[in-house]
Amino acid sequence: MTAIFVSVKPEETRMGLVFDSKLRDFAVERRGEGNLVGNIYRGRVSNVVPGIQAAFIDLNVGKNGFLTLHKQDRLTEGQMLLVQVVKDCRGTKGPGVTRNVTLPGRYIVLEPFGNRISLSRKITCKSLRTRLRTLVQKSLPEGMGVVIRTAAAKAAAEEIENDLRQLLASWQVLLRRSKVGRGPQLLYRELDLSIRMIRDYVTKDVQKIIVDDEATYHTVEELLQDMGLTEIRTEWYQEKEDLFTHYGLNEEIASISDRVVPLPGGGSLVFDYTEAMTVIDVNSGHYSTGSDREETSLATNREAALEIARQLRLRDIGGIIVADFIDMERKEEQEEILDLLRREFAMDRMKPRVMGMTALNLVEMTRMKARRNLFGTVYTTCPMCQGSGRVESPETVYVEIRRRLRSLYLDHAMARSLVLSVHPLVEEWIRIHGMKDMEQEFGAKIRLVSNPSLAVGVFTLLNAPDGD
């Protein structure tokens, strides 16, 4: 069974899609965040940088948008143009923008500056593809393009035509707004998560949608009715307990941030993140299925491929991804794993691609980046380790303290009665392993103080007050 859970609170909206009792998609959108992806702006060219074939566009959002230029593009500073955000801000980088503006609908994505009719690759029936292409071609103005979405495969002709008419009307309104006023201006805002969820996730395979907010519940009901999806059951959850807690999904959500992900047979995936890519290591662990090493490796790799596809969606990992599978010597086994990944990726809206497998059984993949992923929304860089995932060991801090004391006593800068403040972990280690040696070396009386407000690698040394 497929169900969608939507929790709407003043501070955030959360959406989870559950398939066969397992969380398949999860998204969080915070109220205070500048979620810009999908927004269309009238922007001003701030400056053009030919050396990197790019221009920076003032959108009046705090950071200039980054526009990649093609050889035929000729822009000048101060020029006004329509752009759409395709990537949210990341760190010091501004949003990524494009001039290939699109307006997404339920069944159609309108490309006002396009020139062709494209269809979802998931629509495989040739006669259906021909019928859909012919249907849209009748109503599409010359000089425009569309992408026919997967949902159109099961829609009535009238529903598709209405969707296209609404998108064309929205485009005309947007154009009129673009001619009013001066300077950078927001012309079109992407829908909230709860509404995008209906547009992008709901298919006839979804049996029910459970919402904990009354206004959103009624909006969802109306949208489903307008889309002719009245067979999908909607529920307004009114209990005091958190929606995701009530349905037992919190544990799965909490595990999304785990570095190690267990596999059913005893193996595991280990996720590591760098600026340039995500690296996934496949470990066999104590996998017990299979009579020999080769069979065990293949069984683990099969489970790993399925879980990698799921985790990329759950964590919304984009960019370059490299997975280190357990060695497979036979070509047909390698192809089986690659085919399994491709089949699972076919259900992912961010269009992952499997680039191939190297001689070392490394599988190279890419996945589109757009919005801030879950980690960017929920987490921030650790002030202790600065994102490295490591801090100094207590022994390392102790060694540095002794090194510092030698220098201070050499300069006669410290008394023989001291107060040493350290992190609790360091305090415990020094008290057990190093206090006696340190006092003997310096002939000092040292009062050790545990201070949880200090970072692990930080300590303070003070002369003790008289009589202390």
Distance between the termini: 70 Å
User: How many distinct domains?
Assistant: 4
Instruction: Categorize the overall geometry.
Output: globular
The percentage of residues in β strands lies in 25-35%
Radius of gyration: 29 Å
Explain what you see.
Helix 10 runs parallel beside helix 11. This protein has 4 domains: 1-34 and 189-255, eRF1 domain 2 (Nucleotidyltransferase, domain 5, 2-Layer Sandwich); 37-98, OB fold (Dihydrolipoamide Acetyltransferase, E2P) (Beta Barrel); 257-376, no CATH class; 392-461, 3-Layer(aba) Sandwich (Hypothetical Protein Ychn, Chain: A), CATH 3.40.1260. Strand 22 (417-422), helix 11 and strand 23 form a beta-alpha-beta unit. With 468 residues, it is of the alpha+beta class. The strands form 5 sheets. A 6-stranded mixed β-sheet has the order 16-17-18-19-21-20, with helices on one face. The chain has a 5-stranded mixed β-sheet with strand order 3-2-1-14-15. Strands 4-5-6-8-7 form a 5-stranded mixed β-barrel. The chain has helices spanning 126-139, 157-178, 193-201, 214-226, 243-246, 250-254, 293-315, 331-345, 374-378, 394-410, 424-442, and strands at 2-8, 12-19, 22-30, 40-49, 54-58, 65-68, 80-87, 96-98, 103-104, 108-111, 117-119, 145-148, 185-188, 206-211, 233-236, 260-262, 268-273, 277-283, 319-324, 353-357, 362-367, 417-422, 445-450, 460-463. Residues 36-122 form the S1 motif domain. Keywords: Hydrolase, Magnesium, Metal-binding, RNA-binding. This is Ribonuclease E.
